[in-house]
Every structure is written in C-alpha cells, then in structure tokens.
Amino acid sequence: MTEYKHSVSLDKSKCKGCTHCLQRCPTEAIRVREGCAAINPQKCIDCGECIRVCPYKAKKATHDRLDSLSKYKYKIALPAPALYGQFDNLDDIDFVVQGLYDMGFDDVFEVAKAAEMVSGYTRQYLRGDNIGKPVISSACPVVVRLISMRFPFLCKNILPILPPVEVAGKAAREKALREHPELSDKDIGCFFISPCPAKVSYVKNAFAGSESSVDEVLSVSDVYFELVGRMNKITVPEKSTEAGTVGVSWATAGGESTAIFNERYLAADGIENVIRVLDQIENSDFPELEFVELNACNGGCVGGVMTVANPYIAKARIHSLKRYLPVSPNLRPGSALSSGVKMPEVEYIPQTPLSDDRSEAMRMMADIQEIRKDLPDLDCGSCGAPTCAAFAEDIVRGEACADECVVFMRHVFHDYIQRHVSQSKETADGQENSKGGGDGDGNGEA
Amino acid sequence: MPDDVVRFCFDVDGDDFSSAGAASVEVKKRLRQLGISPEVIRRVAIAMYEGEINMVIHADGGKALVEVTPDEVRMTLEDHGPGIADVELAMQEGYSTARENIRSLGFGAGMGLPNMKKYTDTMHIDTEVGRGTTVVMTVKI
Q1: Is A355 an interface residue toward B (CB < 8 Å)?
Q2: Which domain holds residue B128?
C-alpha cells in the first residue's frame, strides 16, 4: 500500500512541546521529541482531537483553498449537511444553496441528498441474508480507518457503500457531463465543503482503493465567511434545496440511524466512546443489534474541527431547519444507486509488532514490563510519551531513554545524593576516629 | 523471569461494570504488540472479557493473570467469591444465577462460561463453595 496522506499536520514554529495533544490522541500517535510534537503517520486516524486541544494553534487541518475554484471551468459545490447548522437565524436552506451559486458555483449537489440515497440503500441492505451484523456505517472516515487498524473482525461489518460525499460527487459529475456535453471530465471541479480533516484525507487517499470523484475539499469555516455576506444580500432565493429531513439529519449524531427506520440500532459519538463501543462489539455478539452508527466527533459531523458553530448549537439549528422540510424526497423506490458507489471490503492493516520475530518480541515485552516497575505510572507526559506504558515501549524500541522520565531521574538524583552524603559522612567519621577526636567539622573533604 | 514467558497481571474491580472488560482490552493491545494472529487475539479477548464480567457479577472482582509462552496464551482468573455449587449446571447455555438488577443491565444471559469454553482450547475450573473460583484457560498460538 502507498503511504497514507494525512490532513492533520503540525506547524513546528508554533509548537511549544506541551502535553495537551499527546494525552488526548486516542491512538497514541504523538510523541514530543526535542521540544516539538511529532505525529506518527502509521497510527494517526485524522480524528482532529489534537487540533481541538492545541492551545497554540500549532496543529492544523490541511484543506484546499477557495482560490482553487479558478482551476475549473465548471464548479460543483457539495455542501455537507453540517454546513446548514452554522448560520444564525436561518430558517430556509434555500438561502445557503443560493449563496453557493452566488459564490460562483455552477451547480450545487447537496450531500444531504446523497445521504438519503445511502439511507435507502442501507434499509435494503439490512434486509439481505448472509451479512455481518451489526452493520457499521461507512460514513465517518475516522471510524473506518480505526476499524481497519484495530478491529480486524469488524471489517466485514462495514456497510459496503461509499459515504454520501462520494455518492454526491459521482452523481454530480455524471449530471454535469450529461447536461453539458461540451465539458470534458477535467473541466469539472467537485468541491466538497467539509466539516472535518478526516474527509480531506479520505479524498486524498483514494479511500478504500477507489479513486475519489471529489477534486477539492474546502473547509466549512472558509466557506462560511464567504457565504454569510452573500446570503445577507439575498431577498428571495431562486434556487432551492433538494434535501429532506432524513438527509439533513446526517449532520448530527444519531441522524443516520433514525433514517434506517429500525429501532435496533446503536449510535455513539466522540472518539473515546466509539473505541469503547467497538471493543465491546468485537468481544460479544449483540444479536439484537442491526445497525451501528459511529461518529468520531462529539455531536456528529457538526462537531468537526473545520466548522465554526458550537456543535450543540448547530444541532439545535438543524432541528429547527427540519421543520420545513419533506421527509425524504430523494428516495424514490427503485432508484438504485449506480454500481460505482459500492465500497470494496475494508482491509485489515496490522500495526507493527515489537519485532517480527516472536521470541524477540516476547523478550522486548518482558523488558517493557521490567522498565515499567521503575516508572511512576503518573502518565504525566513530561518524557514526551503519552503514558508510562508507551514510554517503556519507546525505550525498548530504542526511541527514548529512561533518563527522560523526570520522576525516575529524581529518584536517581536522590539516591546519588544520599550515597554521596553517607560516603562523606563515613569519610569524615573515619578521619575523626584516626585523629582521636580533634576539631573535625564533620563535613569531611570535598 | 525466564525469557520464554511474559506475564501480565490485572486487578478486576468488583463494583465497577463500566470498567469490566478493561483487562481484556489491554491484553488485546499487548498481544497485538507481540504480533499474535488476530484470530487468537479475538479468542483470548472474548474469553477474558466473559471471565472479567463473571468476576464482577458474582465474585466482587478478583485477579487476572495472563501468561504468554511461545506456544500458548494462558489465562488464570482467580476470585474469592461464593464459588460454583454445580459446575455442570453452570456450564449449560442460558443458565445463570445473576440477580435481576444485573440482568436488567444486559448481563447474566448464561453465556459466560459456555463462551469461555467455546473460545479456548482448554478450560479448567477449580471451585469451592464459600471459598472462591479459579478458572484456567489456554489458547494455542
């Protein structure tokens, strides 16, 4: 496999080498070395937790810029449902859609619309035989990557359809080529307006082996600031939304599940919760569970780090927007999705063991256990590793040195001073004895 | 410590359902670091998980020892709980002595011991009413 391209990156000039990101990273992918954080690309799942917690804004989400619009003759906007929750006092999504046209897009294909198609497919898929249950949503790329790295037995449970953004991109491109025969494929630019960096990685890595139909990924926040001004100028929008409540609900945690129309579902959000749920699903079978929706961000996609609004406020706004929408206008019976949106089975990528040689790995593990006895289990992060356990592993792998632990070193110094003091005392006592009393001050020689 | 055994010890907290399964998760991680196959890891994890839950439900916690040798993973789960009066009955699928409040949490389906047996290569139960229970399970690598 080619190297995975990440969209969470670090600005070294801003990094102070503190421990915020270190301790928050759910996959222990970060180490602080020589006063600066370093992300292990093998372990990073692009969840964006480090971006969220960095007090110095040294962690960044890499995404495409608005000026990339000029690269294409025909520009299509693919707004994520989460975009709709960003605006204050908005009661009609038509304004957002019109605003996007006014920004210079030639077409708008709402991801919410594609989400409804995916929901329809999911309902159908759940009725099939011989499928791994519970079926796990394929929408959150962080979750899919996490499963591929840590949960080999759940890979086959992932819904075998590409996420709504990809379904939207493919459909929008086909539509453009159909309606504008003068355009060639490279004239068309599909711009996903994304709430999170994970979706940027998804696009840049040709997710699950299939080339993405999305060309550029813009952040919700960049587009937001461009869009508000335009939206304020609109009195009566000409264009209108094609999304229904089902599609728009995908913006928030639990939205995708309720669209299944099946009560036997589980919806969890927040990366730590997601990991716990996956561990438990892999351990025990839940015969009663049909569908599992997992969102790495708290609150769902509205909680993405490339948004502007507080996720819970955005969620409340999404709820109120839904009042004026039809349920699911994009779900016509028999309107099958094109075959190009099937997702190939997610492959398990095992993490590098301590050593490829089992007995060597066991010896190293025994060393880790030994080293841990000397470590304080404070998990303070001062050594640059997130936990004492991770630090012990780093030492054994030859990536760190025990004296980087401040507590360990304090003990070493303490022992050294104690030994030195008692030695001095012994020497002094010896001198006193040989002098038979005398005027020794007890301090001995230097 | 001889070179060909790695040991991990865990305390299983008796009153805490939310942390039950923590040892299982930790063991999974360590076995992955050792490069053990996913299939073996899964079997060990399920057996450990069920064993942990049992200790929490019935025995107010206990100790779990996991030993990895070049040939097998050996799990020893030791508690000082009430002991099992009739092991044969306890091994039957669906049989459980868990109280109603525990069943309402979704536990106590009577699949713990049967699952532990199903997912391991050997299982031995040493129990005495009033003294406690020790379960030793092995999974071949």
Answers
A1: yes
A2: 6-140
Alpha helices in A323-401 (DSSP H): 358-374, 388-396
Q: Where are the beta strands (DSSP E) in A239-348?
A: 265-269, 291-295
Q: Among A353, A383, A351, A388, which residue's Cα sits nearest to residue A370?
A: A388
First to last CA, chain B: 21
C-alpha distances (whole Å) from A255 to each of A93, A115, A246, A250, A251 are 18, 10, 7, 5, 7
ipTM for the predicted complex comes to 0.83
Segment A200-215, tens digit of pLDDT? 988 888 655 567 889 9
| Alpha carbon of B66: minimum distance to chain A alpha carbons (Å) | 13
Query: What is the set of domains in chain A, with CATH numbers?
Result: 8-61 (3.30.70.20), 66-341 (no CATH), 358-404 (1.10.15.40)
Residues across chain A: 446
Confidence (pLDDT) at A271:
96
Q: Cβ of B42 and A358 within 8 Å?
A: no
CB contact under 8 A, A393 and B6: no
Both structure tokens of A89: 């006092």
Count: domains in chain B: 1
Percent of chain A having pLDDT more than 70? 92
Interface probe, candidates B16, B28, B33, B116, chain A, greatest A C-beta count within 10 A = B33
